[in-house]
Amino acid sequence: MLKLLSYLQRKEWTFIAFSVMFIVLQVWLDLKLPDYMFKITMLVQTPGSETGEVLDQGVFMLLCAIGSMAAAIVTSFFAAQVAAGFSLRLRRLVFDRTLSFSMEEMNRFSTPSLITRSTNDITQVQLLIATGLQVIVKAPILAVWAIFKITGKSWEWSAATGVAVALLIAVLLVIVLVALPKFRIIQTLTDNLNRVTRENLSGIRVVHAYNAEGFEEQKFEVANEELTRTNLFTMRTMAILMPTIGFIMSGISLAIYWIGAFLIQAASGPEKLTIFSNMVVFSSYAMQVIMAFMMLSIIFILLPRAAVSAKRIQEVLATKAMILPGNEVQGKPGIKGKVEFHNVTFRYPDAAEAILENISFTASLGETVAIIGSTGSGKSTLVNLIPRFFDVTEGEILVDGVDVRNYTKEALHSKIGFVSQKAELFSGSVKSNVAFGDTSIEEDMLKKALEIAQAADFVEKMEERYEAPISQSGTNLSGGQKQRLSIARAIYKQPEIYVFDDSFSALDYKTDRVLRSLLKQEISDATSIIVAQRIGTIKDADRILVLDEGKLVGTGTHEELMETCDVYQEIAYSQLSKEELANG
Ligand SMILES: Nc1ncnc2c1ncn2[C@@H]1O[C@H](COP(=O)(O)OP(=O)(O)OP(=O)(O)O)[C@@H](O)[C@H]1O
């Protein structure tokens, strides 16, 4: 929690300082009230006092109450400003940090947990600051000041108040110790509920198609019930607090008056009056002491949960991305569109075995290099290493003669047009998806990119054409349409190097062929690295790499590999007839 406070800005610290000043004023005004009460009781019991004198004291009391209220309102205003501004910044920081994460950090935290951390967890901290700032500062000041005011009045009353405070602290401690461990569990269970809900909603079509509503509902119920049970436990534990405090408050009033009765009885004539007035004032101060502890109990309700949340937010902010950018902004002079793998071995974090072993190849400007291999042979993993979604374990990858690890993130990514295996679209329009991240959209480029990617036909047919809405993840498009828009996005970017990770799989054979021949014409000044399952897609590539269980088992053209590589032959014969292969 304290670490998180380092993200507060100077302006917010100034607001906090103002809040503290107003809180001190508020406490001072609150504690003035019993003094006036003392005067009123003395006046009432002193023969010859005027009603006007009593009323004057009453007016002072009223002014104190109004002043205290005004101070409380100003404090709340500052606290709300600090809380809202702070959580705005925290959300921004968490989001920025998340954007810098590589796949490794994303997998470590998990997406649902990152969502909970940037929403629910930050709200907990905001709530603590908004409501807690007043209480955290006010309670100790009030307690100390009120105790100071009552000391020396009567040891019997002080002892009774001491016993009440000790009892209160004991109750608070027990409750916090019981509830605290549950707060961490609550946040983890919220992550879990988030995960189940998210998975269910994003896979809703599969859930319907497989009549798995009951199954999913059960999963949801388990997560929901677990969270509810834990929440109920902490709430019930906390619920004991307020009645206990109420009971202690009534008890201390009773004790003060009871002790007072004995003291008055034992006192002589005029002293009786002073003791009576002192008793009224003392009980009022004692109430303030208990009130201060009651406020502290609000902190005990808010703080543990907010502390857990703060720790979870801090975990994200303190996590440094494993993949750090370098300083190079350009490749070696005279080299363009060149990708070189030198003895690359790769192991996923925490995995025992290497997924890729000793891979070496070069793709030069204008070349099309294809990668084929059975499912799970490491094709996607290999191309994911080029834009540094992961870093190589051994060996090196050079782009334009410079190790990818030495480039700045922007420099490396501006060279690469990456089309992932799963077409990723964002809610927005056709235009915002194709010209992704580009604010000065060039219509001509957009049109051309859509035409090359074989997406122009269906986009033109849409009522709003380039402005046609795309829903989240492109759910209002077919699989093939989504792939075509993702391809158009890469073409619009005009990179030096295209990486297509099985990006033609949802296209029909004809579209696949037309798209590839257009690509060859239009992007002949760029390098293409194509991962594919279909021999037809890669047959014409300048070079084909055959992967088998993470090892490069063949390199060459289609014809060469048909002569030399068993694995390639096997794939080819399983997809095409001997005649098709013979006739090209
Ligand atoms: N994030 C990850 N963490 C750990 N292991 C992974 C991860 N992603 C993939 N793998 C493993 O790496 C291996 C290679 O996966 P990869 O996706 O590269 O294969 P592929 O050849 O592209 O397969 P496909 O043709 O089915 O897409 C698989 O065994 C897979 O289980």
What strand order characterises the main sheet? Answer: 6-9-10-3-11-12
CATH topology group of the largest domain: ABC transporter transmembrane region fold
* Mean pLDDT across residues: 86
Distance between the termini: 67 Å
Q: Which ligands are bound?
A: adenosine-5'-triphosphate
Counting helices, strands and paired strands, the structural category is: alpha/beta
Q: Biggest sheet, in brief? A: 6 strands, mixed
Structural shape: elongated
Main location: membrane
Membrane topology: Multi-pass membrane protein
Transmembrane segments: 12-29, 59-88, 127-148, 160-180, 239-259, 279-303
Keywords: ATP-binding, Cell membrane, Membrane, Nucleotide-binding, Transmembrane, Transmembrane helix, Transport
Give a verbal description of the structure.
With 584 residues, the protein is α/β, with parallel strands linked by helices. It has 2 domains: 2-318, Up-down Bundle (ABC transporter transmembrane region fold), CATH 1.20.1560; 339-421 and 495-582, 3-Layer(aba) Sandwich (Rossmann fold). The chain has 21 helices and 12 strands. The protein has helices at residues 2-5, 10-45, 51-100, 103-109, 111-150, 155-202, 204-209, 213-239, 241-266, 269-318, 379-384, 409-415, 430-434, 443-452, 456-461, 479-493, 509-522, 535-538, 558-564, 566-575, 578-582; strands spanning 339-346, 356-363, 368-373, 394-399, 402-403, 416-419, 428-429, 469-470, 497-501, 527-531, 543-548, 551-556. The strands form 3 sheets. It has a 6-stranded mixed sheet with strand order 6-9-10-3-11-12. Strand 4 (394-399) and strand 5 (402-403) form a beta hairpin. Helix 5 (111-150) packs antiparallel against helix 10 and helix 19 crosses helix 20. It is elongated. It starts with a helix and ends with a helix. 34% of the residues are buried. The protein binds adenosine-5'-triphosphate. Residues 348, 351, 355, 373, 375-381, 421, 502 line the site of adenosine-5'-triphosphate. It is found in: Cell membrane. It holds the Pfam family ABC_tran. GO terms for molecular function: ABC-type oligopeptide transporter activity; ATP binding; ATP hydrolysis activity.
